[in-house]
Specification:
- The chain is an alpha/beta fold and 650 residues long.
- The chain folds into three domains: 132 residues, Chitobiase/beta-hexosaminidase domain 2-like (Chitobiase, domain 2), CATH 3.30.379; 286 residues, TIM Barrel, CATH 3.20.20.80; 133 residues, Methane Monooxygenase Hydroxylase, Chain G, domain 1 (Up-down Bundle).
- Helices cover 41% and strands 14% of the residues.
- The protein has 19 helices and 15 strands.
- The strands form two sheets. An eight-stranded parallel barrel has the order 8-9-10-11-12-13-14-15, surrounded by four helices. It has a seven-stranded mixed sheet with strand order 1-7-5-6-4-2-3, sandwiched between helices.
- The longest helix is centred in the last third of the chain and has 25 residues.
- The protein starts with 30 loop residues before the first strand and ends in a 22-residue tail after the last helix.
- The relative contact order is 0.08.
């Protein structure tokens, strides 16, 4: 007899007939191997939980099982001698229960920090699934991986042994412009947990109490909201890091300013924040803010600034250790945060900064087109320690990103960087939900850079945002392609715009240019189908399966996509008419131009980003094709193989 798919009753035999395939897991595990056979959860399972498991991990597992169709979850304290239904064991470390479960599945525990093992095996008329974490974080990650596997109707017998390549992985809300709302941050913390990220840095440039008014205490209401956010982070096994930015006004040698900073961090500690960060970026560092710094550190300049900053940071680090021996190391971002060229400032930090302090670095530029292993090694030498990469992607708070969402895959970071970095933090966009597209890649690269596949992870991000709906995921991929441009501070982007659409439009141009009538008609028909997909994608994205925050924060771009799609529909109709020698071609092309102009005039959401303006969608690709289309087919003898005019709504 055969086990049935999830949601149906289990039969006597645990072995399923047919082919068993390796599941897709994002981030890619360090090791995943099929073990032979398969099992299904069915509608009823037994959960065996070790005493040390934290409640949020159990809650998450129960949600995963419910989503997989499990209706009844009974509990037990130990494993049976005879398995008549699926048993799931949850625990950490060297617990005897975990040891028993792993022994029965023939697996061993991954002992790296945040590591875990998942082992599944059909036994008797039931089966055993062991979710074993090296620590609580690892166990939580194991359940997040199981969430992806359990979404399939049948679970293959397998062994996953997994752990992160980089100890710090996540995001830094460090952009200019409208900060995220507390609701955005809460959703983002839930998302970070789902991709096994473990760090969120609160550092919005426009929080006055973190930067301009850093000495002042937070209003009680704001402090309470930050406390709730920190609690959400803990439930998600994410380290909530509070960043203070005193650089614009701090007097480094003034004990009163050091006391003010310590009071600020003490207040955050009372609401459950235990990780801290001092941001010294985007400040004038060749001029003192007070006369006493000149007396303490000498004439102002880059080297003196490095000495003064190190003195302040060392004092903060020492205070953290005095108050909490188990506190995480202080993180800082230096004033010279980009490139790794030797300088008096970097030399001063290297010489004077406490080696426990973590230093951030943005790569070879503020927005680097690529980051290599030699780049990171040079940064290690310059700062005297491995750096924590502040990756300014997909942030869109600078001028060349005006009108853009940055939805290309996370790419051009070299495999092997995990040997040279302490981790990666992505600086996301002002739009939280759209940021998840790239951040999924950042987290996956930080977890396993050597097996990272940018395109595969990109598609996985679309599936996740689409709630698993294949049609919605396909619509999102069309939209992502129109927002593929990745600018730098220079004139050349590091990722091109709309590569998939450009390839399709180039095929149309080529088919028309070759002069073969049949090929030309096929290409124009295919163009019409693609135009229909583009025009229809926004409605699919807004239909309810896609995360509603994504649809709302992308609203003007989706509005523009509808119009650009309709313009391309009319363009395809115009080419078809021109191919047949019909006078209707002019009318279609004129209508396409009007819609293109209307689409190009749509503005970003006021106040949502630092620089507002008209939204850009497949610019340089779609607009150019629509503009060129009337010139692609001239008048000539009418082809005998006429096709009927393609009906298109004006």
């Amino acid at each position: 007899m055969i086990l049935m798919a999830a949601g149906l009753a289990l039969s006597a035999s645990p072995v399923l007939a047919g082919t068993v395939t390796l599941p897709v897991v994002i981030p890619a595990p360090a090791s995943i191997k099929l073990a032979g056979g398969a099992l299904a959860l069915g509608t009823s399972v037994v959960l065996v939980t070790a005493p040390e498991v934290d409640p949020e991990t159990v809650v998450l597992l129960r949600k995963v099982l419910s989503a997989a169709g499990v209706e009844t979850i009974t509990t037990a304290r130990k494993l049976p001698s005879v398995f008549q239904q699926p048993y799931i064991v949850l625990g950490t470390g060297e617990n005897a229960l975990i040891g028993d479960a792993l022994a029965r599945t023939g697996a061993s525990l991954d002992t790296h920090a945040e590591g875990y093992t998942i082992a599944s095996r059909p036994i008797g008329s039931g089966g055993l699934i062991a979710l074993a974490g090296r620590d609580g974080d690892g166990l939580f990650h194991a359940v997040q991986t199981f969430r992806q596997i359990a979404a399939q109707p049948v679970l293959p017998a397998l062994v996953i042994q997994d752990h992160p390549a980089m100890p710090i992985r996540g995001t830094i809300e460090g952009f200019y412009g409208a900060p995220w709302t507390m609701a955005d941050r809460t959703r983002h913390l839930d998302f970070l947990a789902s991709v096994k990220a473990n760090t969120y840095v609160y550092s919005p440039k426009d929080d006055p109490f973190a930067r301009d008014r850093w000495r002042e205490p937070y209003p009680a209401e704001t402090l309470a909201a930050l406390g709730k956010l920190a609690a959400t982070a803990r439930r998600n096994h994410v380290d909530f890091v509070y960043a203070i930015s005193p650089g614009p006004s701090v007097c480094f040698s003034d004990p009163a300013d050091r006391d003010a900073m310590e009071r600020k961090l003490d207040a955050l500690r009372t609401i459950g924040v235990h990780s801290f960060y001092v941001a010294l970026d985007d400040i004038e560092y060749t001029k003192w803010n007070c006369d006493r710094d000149a007396a303490a550190f000498g004439p102002s300049g880059a080297e003196a600034a490095g000495v003064a900053q190190a003195a302040l940071l060392n004092a903060v680090q020492a205070d953290l250790l005095r108050k909490d021996k188990a506190s995480r190391p202080l993180i800082m971002v230096p004033t010279e945060y980009y490139d790794a060229k030797e300088s008096p400032y970097k030399a001063a930090l290297r010489k004077h900064l406490d080696p426990r302090v973590v230093v951030q670095w943005t790569g070879t530029d503020v927005v680097p087109p690529a980051i290599s292993i030699p780049d990171a090694r040079t940064a290690t030498k310059a700062f005297g320690r491995k750096t924590l990469l502040w990756d300014n992607y997909p942030v869109n708070d600078y001028a060349t990103t005006t009108g853009r969402l940055l939805l290309a895959p996370y790419a051009r970071r070299e495999a092997g960087l995990s040997e040279e970095l302490t981790g990666i933090l992505s600086n996301p966009m002002n739009q939280e939900a759209p940021s998840r597209v790239a951040v999924t890649g950042v987290a996956a690269f930080g977890w396993n850079d050597k097996d990272y596949d940018a395109d595969r992870t990109w598609r996985a991000a679309a599936r996740e945002l689409a709630g698993g709906d294949a049609q919605a995921a396909a619509a999102l991929m069309l939209f992502f392609d129109t927002q593929h441009m990745a600018p730098t501070f220079g004139s050349q982007p590091w990722q091109e715009q709309a590569p998939a659409l450009k390839a399709a439009l180039d095929r149309t141009r080529d088919a028309i240019a070759q002069g073969d009538g049949a090929a030309r008609r096929l290409a124009i028909a295919e163009l019409g189908r693609r135009a229909d997909e583009i025009a229809g994608a926004p409605d699919i994205i807004r239909s309810g399966t896609v995360d509603p925050g994504f649809a709302e924060q992308s609203r003007p771009w989706l509005d523009a996509m509808v119009l650009w799609g309709r313009a391309l529909q009319l363009t395809a109709a115009g080419l078809d008419a021109a191919d047949r020698g019909s006078d209707a071609a002019f009318r279609y092309f004129a209508g396409a131009q009007r819609l293109a102009a209307e689409a190009a005039a749509i503005q970003t959401i006021p106040g949502a980003t630092r620089f507002g303006g008209p939204v850009k969608l497949a610019d340089g690709v779609l607009d150019r094709f629509i503009a060129d289309a009337p010139t692609l087919i001239g008048s000539g003898k009418q082809d005998s193989g006429m096709s009927a005019e393609r009906p298109v709504a004006p």
